[in-house]
Protein 1
Amino acid sequence: MTDLDLSLDAAALTVVLCDIESVSGNEGPLADAVEAALRSLPHLSVDRDGDTVVARTALGRAERVVLAGHLDTVPLGDNLPCRVEDGRIHGCGTTDMKSGVAVALRVAALLPSPNRDVTYVFYDHEEVEAEKNGLGRVARNNPHWLAGDFAVLMEPTGATVEGGCQGTLRADVVLRGHRSHSARSWMGSNAVHAAGEVLTRLAGHRADEVEIDGLVYREGLNAVGITGGVAGNVIPDECRVTVNYRFAPSKSEEEAAAVVRRVLDGYRVEVSDTAPGALPGLSHPSAAAFVEMVGREPQPKFGWTDVSRFSALGVPAVNYGPGDPSVAHQREEYCDIAPILECEQKMLGWLGA
Ligand SMILES: [Zn+2]
């Protein structure tokens, strides 16, 4: 097992963490190393569930903060071990999100007596199906491990605070026709042609922009797939248009479904899958203080992230981490050293002051 040297700065530690490959499902060796490093710190009590490691201070402070990050990465793109060049670390997991994990580990090691109690959560299976997600599993098995007044999910945000996250809904619009031989098409009714009006409505729909806590969430309602057709000589009797709606976190899943049904009034809409958004909660005093400390204009998070799991547990949460989200999951993934050290300094200052 690799010994993690937590006296390395967060950038050097990022390299060590990335070089322990941990593609989803293979987090074991990295979780072992993280667990051993945290167990060597006498000010923390450590628990483990599968490949999720949770460590806590218990100082009786007035407030408890949760710092969380996933240990897994997407599959390698021939991009390990890491390469450091011109102030930049190249490799799988650098931005998403072992640089964030490194910052949290440094806070854990350097602050035996933080000004708020801190819970550190390092979890497995974030980059795969939601049902495998380690944070979700802990929320089901041991929700008290995740208790806190405020959570920072150290996903890549370019070292600015991204508040909340948008919800997502997927639905099929089902169009029915009547099958016939294409040589006698007048005897049938073409379900694929019927999709034309659905696509026209979607293309003409103006998605909402919703302002919450000063952040503007830009929604999107789009066709993301279409299937239909039986054979080259048959008038098709069914066509499905798959629609994805990214909705502002002020809407519930039910309200989001109602929007889709209203836009597609008159059509059969089958909702297949939804996940709620999370409100930014930036008006919460600890979140407001955090934004102030970071000192950059907060931004809305357009994608779906695990902040919504904290939100569902009643813990306001924001995204904040050193990586650039736009290079996540790419073969060319990298993270600049400067924002890693900046995040490390800011987190140490915030919790150590
Ligand atoms: Zn991530």
Protein 2
Amino acid sequence: MLRVTEIFRSIQGESTHAGRPCTFVRLTGCPMRCVWCDSEYTFTGGEYFSLDDVLEKVRDFNCKLVEVTGGEPLAQREAFALIERLCAENYEVLVETGGFVPIAEVDPRANIILDVKCPTSGEEARNHWPNLERLRADKDEVKFVITNYEDWQYALGIIERYELDQRTKTILISPAWDAVDLKDVASWVSASGLDLRMQLQLHKYIWGPEARGV
Ligand code: SF4
């Protein structure tokens, strides 16, 4: 069984897939506590679903793209089996993970979107660094949520140290909502000389930062 906070259809709000129709499977629970977390409602509660029930709901929404997210989706052991089943049904699967749980056993057909936690998150020490060495240049993305200049400098250091421009399809620079001047982030990104992608959380601009299930 899987503990599930919500399953819904919307458009992808982040990553290179932003704007595409997508079914989201949001699993309950997360071992991290990022200070700017926008999904604290996933920490508790949820309903138990069998894998078959999750798949049936996903089929009903009729989207080619499916994102498994949380919370921290990989904190539930059965999430790995869910990802495998979704891939076997030929969905294009995105796994959005906070970077604390090893990704080694994720079905290789799935696309990983891996957060690297910057210092201001308060969870930097829990980054599982071997995950960065497993990223694949043809399909995986890495994301830095930036709250200030210190986070930006930290991101640059990690990108260089792990050669993330070689290892990933895209490096996402995502300003934390309402925490940093977007023009500042745009100027840092544009002057970096690196092939980065600044992203805004599209769903929050459409439905507002507090909306759930959209
Ligand atoms: S890893 Fe994600 S869900 Fe967990 S606390 Fe951090 S932002 Fe929130």
